[in-house]
């Protein structure tokens, strides 16, 4: 069973992000229902390990927060882009949540892929797309931005490869700690 931990996005946010799909020849666009923000890629595990992972993640404490989805960019070099993405902002909070997730999973003896954490939403794979078209796309979407997105939970997903592409199933949802309105107001006043 192939697993990863991610933030599932609300449908209205997926619909807004879906407006970014198109305009680059030969791009393999991701289906809107698969948009998410990966927090940790676990990889292949045995079914009993999923229960241990769920138990470890269920003990994690982290406050709910907001993030911004803005901009578009690529992974890969400027001349050879590979992945087209929508950017995610609120890196300090996301990085802390990522670190807590990795620590929780590794504490039960399961190793997480050692990748630099770069939060994003994958829009397309663009291996063979003309560079000029990708560059124009990035320029055209440089000001893309959604309203702040409330993050009240994260999820453990399974991924199954099919001829039509990857199929993601949300296996377990983990609620984040609600933000105390009084503490939030005091923090805002104190800044």
UniProtKB/TrEMBL annotation:
Its EC number is 3.1.4.58. NCBIfam families: 2_5_ligase (TIGR02258). Belongs to the 2H phosphoesterase superfamily. ThpR family. Gene3D superfamilies: Cyclic phosphodiesterase. The active site is at residues 36, 120. It catalyses: a 3'-end 2',3'-cyclophospho-ribonucleotide-RNA + H2O = a 3'-end 2'-phospho-ribonucleotide-RNA + H(+). The keyword Hydrolase applies. HAMAP family: RNA_CPDase. A motif (HXTX 1) lies at residues 36-39. A motif (HXTX 2) lies at residues 120-123. Residues 7-85, 92-168 form the Phosphoesterase HXTX domain. It is an enzyme of class 3 (hydrolase). Keywords: Hydrolase. This is RNA 2',3'-cyclic phosphodiesterase. The lineage of its organism: Bacteria, Pseudomonadati, Pseudomonadota, Alphaproteobacteria, Sneathiellales. It comes from Sneathiella marina. Hydrolyzes RNA 2',3'-cyclic phosphodiester to an RNA 2'-phosphomonoester. The keyword 4Fe-4S does not apply.
